[in-house]
């Protein structure tokens, strides 16, 4: 362990280096350097007194080994990571860590983090935030992104809500300790925050299955809402909506492969034992027209297609056990399995929704249209629901609620 010599100077040097790297990578967008200036003034280390980093190797069961990092455990590692362009996991499975006596973790689902600075700056830039705007941030988290907004706009223009009371308390301590005084509230971001409405911009740091209508109603006419969208297949997209005077909204999907943790009220339900679902499938298998890696491969094309396919089967979840891919829809009772078959895949389906068949039909249409990218799709929210529109592809609907 390397003991600190001068925390302010050490942090200042690392912060300057981080901002220089972000500028070189274009994180702050050359036409709008104000967010880089804000990043140069906000001490990120204050907002992450403890976090986890992954070890180089998984454990014997293949689980990620998460190592706790604090200034007491390793000052140098803690401070360097605080000013790296890295997402720092601060909570697993909704459970708080005793950072005075943290322990190594094996596996687990991250439920809170300090998002990598380049993405935070990108989110604020994509939302087209300018001086004088009032903003609502959904998901305070550690408070670092909130601090950037306060630094840029002034605390009186910033409202941030967080559903986790312990997370909110820690963020408030850090923010107030740095001299930032935004409006903070414990609230479910699905419903926004009416006491501070209306807002010029609403920006979410968590993802939703569909656009929460309360957020549109709390946005000034002509204002904008930047939302990550995701679902139970873990397909992701982002949309920038402009809200009209009649409360409808429309906007294009944004390019890029970015994912966020889901809002807790939009997380996928437990689905039980995949073997139980597979046992109920009847009838002979057929050959799959598309392999599952069309939507699971680690490519930008597959990432985008996974989101669209998910919109075709919005209540489906996917899990792989012993090489067999299971699709499970706990809402309709439908299920499907894809099993390797001599270099190809065989499919069995059951229930009112033929899950993989529906995905295949959309993939066929997607290929026939030339595999159009995210920015060619428009999300429209009006009296007819929430529809993803493309001139050459079938209309898709986001789930309600």
UniProtKB/TrEMBL annotation:
Name a Pfam family for this protein: PCMT
Where in or outside the cell is it found? Cytoplasm
Q: Which GO terms describe its biological process?
A: methylation
Q: Which family does it belong to?
A: Belongs to the methyltransferase superfamily. L-isoaspartyl/D-aspartyl protein methyltransferase family.
Question: Could you tell me the EC number(s) of this protein?
Answer: 2.1.1.77
- Molecular function terms from GO: methyltransferase activity
Its keywords, alphabetically, are:
Cytoplasm, Methyltransferase, S-adenosyl-L-methionine, Transferase
Please give the name of this protein.
Answer: Protein-L-isoaspartate O-methyltransferase
């Amino acid at each position: 362990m390397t003991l600190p010599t001068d925390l302010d100077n050490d942090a200042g040097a690392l912060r300057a280096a981080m901002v220089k790297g972000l500028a070189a990578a274009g994180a702050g967008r050359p036409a709008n350097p104000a967010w880089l200036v804000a990043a140069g003034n906000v001490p990120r280390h204050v907002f992450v007194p403890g976090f986890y980093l992954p070890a180089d190797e998984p454990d014997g069961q293949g689980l990620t080994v998460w190592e706790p990092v604090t200034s007491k455990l390793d000052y140098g590692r803690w401070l360097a990571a605080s000013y790296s362009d890295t997402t720092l996991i601060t909570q697993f499975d909704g459970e708080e860590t005793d950072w005075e006596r943290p322990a190594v973790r094996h596996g687990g689902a991250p439920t809170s983090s300090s998002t990598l600075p380049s993405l935070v700056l990108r989110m604020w830039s994509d939302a087209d935030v300018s001086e004088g705007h009032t903003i609502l941030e959904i998901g305070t988290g550690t408070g670092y992104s909130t601090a950037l907004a306060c630094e840029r706009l002034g605390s009186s223009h910033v409202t941030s809500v967080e559903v986790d009371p312990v997370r909110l308390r820690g963020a408030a301590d850090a923010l107030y300790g740095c001299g930032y005084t935004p409006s903070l509230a414990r609230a479910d971001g699905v419903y926004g925050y009416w006491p501070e409405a209306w807002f010029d911009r609403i920006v979410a740091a968590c993802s939703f299955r569909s656009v929460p209508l309360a957020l549109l109603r709390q946005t000034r006419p002509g204002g904008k809402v930047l939302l990550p969208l995701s679902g139970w297949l873990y397909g992701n997209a982002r949309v920038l909506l402009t809200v009209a005077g009649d409360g409808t909204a429309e906007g294009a999907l944004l390019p890029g492969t970015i994912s966020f943790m889901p809002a807790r009220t939009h997380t996928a339900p437990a689905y039980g034992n995949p073997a139980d679902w597979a046992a109920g499938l009847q009838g002979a298998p057929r050959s799959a027209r598309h392999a599952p890696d069309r939507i699971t491969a680690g490519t930008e094309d597959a990432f985008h297609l996974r989101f669209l396919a998910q919109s075709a089967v919005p209540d489906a979840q996917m899990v792989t056990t012993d090489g067999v891919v299971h699709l499970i829809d706990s809402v309709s009772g439908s299920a499907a399995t894809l099993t390797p078959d001599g270099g190809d895949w065989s499919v069995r389906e059951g229930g009112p929704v033929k899950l993989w068949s529906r995905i295949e039909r959309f993939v066929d249409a997607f290929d026939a249209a030339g595999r159009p990218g995210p920015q060619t799709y428009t999300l429209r929210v009006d009296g007819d629901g929430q529809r993803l529109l493309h001139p050459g592809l079938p209309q898709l609907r986001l789930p309600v609620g």
